[in-house]
Amino acid sequence: MSKAMREDLLLFNSIVDELLFQEKENPVSTPIKAKELYEKIDLSLPENPTITSEFSKVLKDLVLKTPKTASNRFFNQLWGGRNSKAVLGDLLAVMLNTSMYTYKVSGPQTAVESEIIEKICKMIGYSNHSGGTFPTGGSMSNFMALIMARDKKDLEIPNSGVIKTMVAYTSFESHYSNAKNASFAGIGRDNLRYIPTNNKGEMIPEKLEECIKKDIQKGLVPFYVNATAGTTVLGAFDSVKELSNICKRYELWLHVDGAYQGAVVFSPKYKSLLEGIEHSDSFSFNAHKMLGTPLTCSLLLVNEIQNLFNSFNNEADYLYQTHSDNYNLGKTSFQCGRRNDALKFWTLWKAVGTKGLSSIVEHLFETSKIARKYVRNNPNYTLYNDGDSLSICFNYKEFEAKELCTKLYHAKKLLVGYGSFKGEEFVRLVTINAENKEMEILNFFKILEEFAEENKLSLQKRAMLKVS
Length: 468
What we know:
By secondary structure, the protein is an alpha/beta fold. Among the domains are: 3-68; 89-348, Aspartate Aminotransferase, domain 2. Helices cover 43% and strands 13% of the residues. Helix 7 (138-153) packs across helix 12 (306-312) and helix 10 (205-217) packs parallel to helix 11. The termini are far apart. 43% of the residues are buried.
């Protein structure tokens, strides 16, 4: 090991030690206004080298002023926490610095990715010809599914382009990437239909079928349905079983976007939330969400791997010079150079086993039940969603949700977001950090309530806003 590498690793350890200490002592970083960012941190890039002591100081300052997404006060997004075994795998992937497109450069890391994909395909009941890949995120997973659906509907499209007007379907509560993807794929945002949801946020199958029939009567070409396993706001699960029956009837591709809560496939207790998943054409989930691996770790599984080859394979003699297609993973991925996102998931899975992954999933649901029970049993709260979901949507008294969340953030108390459904805005607590126990969940409400009472004169009321 070179002297420089040794010194940099020592610096890394020093900064990490300080970060872990600060996560415990000051779990919410001091917010920095965007317009003041360059004043608070020296981000300038100089002509000459920065002296070592100054470089170390600036780097530590940058890290410690970044939002602490692994702390027990972070409830803001659909990820959180930090699993040590997964972090180990990610750090090793950085040191190895392999790319996953050919066996020649990735070697046994190819088998790491293939083993994960094969195992999950069997778990969800996909065919013997199934397969998958590790895209760069949930949005890319959805995009790749859309492209495969488009190309399966018309195998000439990859060469001649989209000629007919094709129509895709998703729910009003689905991920925003669906609209972008329709644009990227040449389908057009105007040809993405948003299907109404019920009061739980689930797509209404009857409304989907009505819409498909109308588009067929117009001479359009329906080809794709995006179902959601854990909507972004309420965490609702669309009925995969009912939607798959409709898709089979009209020969549409069914993709299940489980980026948020698709990891329920690892839990015998909660797998029923994805009943019928074996009848889908593709399924995706993010291990960096429910399972706590570092960002990003997204998986896209397909019932028939040939669809990946049809849409994403392109011959390159200068690149694929050894081994069969099964070992050259670049032939089924969107990009060429691709970091090893599989190793961190493999180290986690190898260390804790499938039962351990199941325990992580079930623990998250237990903490969500603790939070939901607290809200339901407290007259000062209004609950907006019930059932199995890691999102707990509520309002406290009559305080305006957006303002309450914003002021909690600026006061360095909590990082929690807000959302809306059917015109009602509320606080959205996400119980996705597997390191949190009952104490951390109850402490969340204690902090929120104390802050609201201390600042009740400056907090606006929802009733006032509605009148205005």
